[in-house]
Specification:
Blueprint lengths: L4 E8 L5 E8 L39 H12 L8 E7 L4 E7 H15 L9 H5 L7 H19 L8 H24 L4 H27 L15
Antiparallel strand pairs: 1-2, 1-3, 3-4
Helix pairs in contact: 1-2, 1-5, 2-6, 4-6, 5-6
């Protein structure tokens, strides 16, 4: 039997204490397998600030799957202040990454990974990117990974001959709605602001990516000169 996949976010907090968030995933489909709270907080209920574009019904889903899985991490790190500098060590099977960054940036990376793997119908489309998680990715890296994921998805669906990125842009429009409304949930979850600001950082990519898509692809073209048959310039 294949072992459960794990990613650990370890936090060195300003007061000298250490905390960690362990996330466990099914090795086959990379869905989050962490246990959810036995008594979920009120803000995780599906109808509480339910996303405007949420396709789930409260008859089948009493709680928002993303909020339900976020709750332990939000509770664990609720004392953080957005612009606190924290040391973050992300341990994966393939590598360990360390960064000194703001609390909101660190939490943004954690919440983004949870949302992509917890069962939300919209963010679930980002699960292939989550499988090859890249902590603290830049805008350029995110555009590259999103486009690669989208093109591979089309190939696997047998629609590789489709043209344009309208479907990808539509996905990010819907992710913007999800992030906006999730931020409202998190505003009720804690008195401090890192979780909401973390969502704002996540949401910045949903608005930046469609706008940056064409310019980023233009910037990437020289990297693909060999694929396009462009001769190597003599030195």
């Amino acid at each position: 039997m294949t072992e459960t996949l794990r990613i650990r976010y370890g936090f060195d907090l300003p007061n000298g204490s250490k905390k960690h968030v362990d996330l466990c995933f099914d090795p086959k489909n990379f869905r989050l397998t962490n246990e959810v709270p036995a008594e979920p907080p009120f803000w995780t209920e599906l109808k509480f600030s339910q996303c405007a574009n949420c396709p789930l019904s409260s008859e089948e889903h009493t709680h928002c799957p993303s909020a339900l899985h976020m709750a332990p991490a939000v509770e664990l790190l609720k004392e953080l202040v957005s612009f606190d500098t924290v040391g973050v060590t992300v341990t994966q099977a393939e590598r360990t990454v360390h960064a000194e960054t703001s609390a909101q940036q660190a939490l943004s990376s954690v919440l983004g990974l949870i949302m992509a793997t917890s069962g939300c119908p919209w963010t679930d489309k980002l699960r292939p990117m989550a499988r090859y998680h890249l902590p603290f990715a830049s805008e350029a890296e995110t555009v590259y990974r999103s486009v690669c994921m989208f093109l591979l998805a089309r190939e696997l669906m047998g629609t590789a001959e489709s043209s344009g990125f309208a479907e990808l842009k539509d996905l990010y429009d819907n992710l913007h709605v999800v992030n906006r409304d999730m931020s409202r949930r998190l505003g009720a979850a804690t008195r401090t602001d890192p979780a909401r600001n973390a969502m704002a950082l996540l949401d910045s990519y949903t608005t930046l990516l469609p706008a940056a898509l064409e310019s980023q692809l233009t910037d990437l073209k020289p990297l693909f000169d060999a694929w396009r048959g462009v001769p190597i310039s003599s030195i």
